[in-house]
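Exam revision sheet. Question 4 asks you to relate a sequence to its structure. Input first:
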Amino acid sequence: MCGPNKFLGRALVKSLKFSFLLVLGVMLAIQELKSSLPNYAGSNMIVLTDGEETVEPRLTGLNFSELAGITVHTIAFGQRADSILEDLAIRTGGRTFQHRDESTNLFSIFTRLAVQDDSGTVEILSENFNLTNSTRRFFMDPNSGDQISILITFPQYHLSKSDVQVMKPNGDVINSTATLPDVYRSVLAFDLIEIDSEVVVGEWQIRVSYFDTIPPMFMGTMHVVTKRLPGIQKLPIQIDATWALSSVGKIEIQTLYVAVSQGYTPIINADVRVTVMVPNGPHVPLEVWDDGVGPDVRSGDGVYSGFFTQFKGIGRYSVKVTVLGVSKVTKVLLGAFVGQGLAAADPELIQESSITEMDSGLFERSIEGNSFKCTDELACSGKDDIFAPYRVTDLRGYTIKENATAVLTFTAPGDDVFEGTASYYELHIARNITRLLRQFNETEVLQYIPFEDITNETMPPYVISGNLSAPLPARSRETFYIQLPEEEGKFSYIFSIVAVDDVGQRSLPSNFATVSTAYIKVKAAGSFPLSIIGAIVMLLVLLLLLSLLALLIWKRTRSKGDDKESNHSNRDNVRNSTPPKVCQVDVRNHKIDDVVHRNIDDYARSADTQINQSNYPMFRFGIITEQTQHADKIYSDQSVMHNHAYVTDPHQKFARDL
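Answer key, structure tokens:
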């Protein structure tokens, strides 16, 4: 393919004559391109081969100035294709792909290159399927395009034994009897079926039925792409996948970047699924993240990144990526810009712009990423532990002024870069950044001291929370608390951490985190800690409350004692006084003996007492005594018996008939 949407068939045919001389085929394509397109700058060339150069001339002797303005993409068929393909693509700004015999990626590769030419083509899915009654569901979103094309290929001679039906979201069925605007084409010579239709938003279904009793040994392939109509400006959601290195040598870390965007607008929180095809053994899954940690430079920029370390031998490695939009989770970040590992826009401009999250809705995209070649036997074997833990890049620190404590947080690396779990950490501390830079290994390494082992002789700094000898799994959030010295003066403590794996491989020192004592309230020399002073104050308050309670109880007890003593005194006075005279009153006849009555009057006058005359008709008796009327009333109620009234002695508490 040379130039946007232009095929130079003559160049491809002629190049077949020189299939054993790859360089001659490239030179012939350049000549044909320049003669056919006067303005050939910006054109693309695709070079395919399945072998190695064995004779002169070779591509290494190619005059690359002849390729100025031409981008060369290469496709290697199998593992034996010449490694010069990666170099050719790199030097011209192109990409390298690998085609596997059992894969569907050749179709995906050409679709991807068409997307790169801005032809409006979007790949929805590309995968293998089993011919025995297979059903594949996929979702078409409003931004997927306007026209849909479905291409289904079958193993040789199996198309005639198969039937394909496509069901739209509105219930319409496309099959061999379809009429316009739907198109159903069966090409027996190539064992393929092509279906074209208009895009309808919703869930589509592809149903493949096989009629032979003996199931085929091979699988079919299924491809779905869409196109935009000319003049329609609605941008589709697209994905791109790129390896950072086209070739991996001795102890090099490979990184995959997956960009998900709608135009230049990033899409975040998508479900990104990555599968790496290795030279030997089963496919390997790879996790990618858009969190700004490790290989991911900037969080939320629509680029999902991941390290790859699961090498399985020398050869080419390719990748397949599928991205799913999750309703109410996946967002289109309006006002932001997508970047390949970092934001493409100036950060200051991004801060000034208004960023709004919009629900992306359901969508599905699939793509075949470029390939790379692993060339070093030791690095590619995957048998030896050759990768150290990744360098921590997000170490952060702050202080808790109340107890002179520093808090450090960071994302845990793994045993192999960002996979697995490291064996332990070394936490370095210094007051001088120059010492960390020049004499890092000589700086103080903090130790963890359990709370029960801390004494007055334990001198800070030391770790009081967080286990340095038991790191958390990769990508977990680590937090450590460090007790700092409580000293006079204002200065800074600088921290850096190193992760070590099970074979002793060390990560590079992390970024530096600075904690300033300006935020710590330092205690005065010779004074007690605030905690001790607070305890003493609380104890004094408690003692004061107890004293007040005891005083109140004592006063109440004394008051009751005084009342009892007063009562005893009154009773003694009554006992010591002249016994009262008593008289008998005949209540029935109301006759009072004059002599007795007179004696009573005389006693009352002599004792300076008063007789309550009003009591006579009510209680039918009266009490004559030297004591208070209160005592008289107490015993008056007890003295009403029968028809007689008694004057009783309150001190003896008994009544006597007169």
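Marking note for examiners. The chain is about 20% helix and 30% strand.
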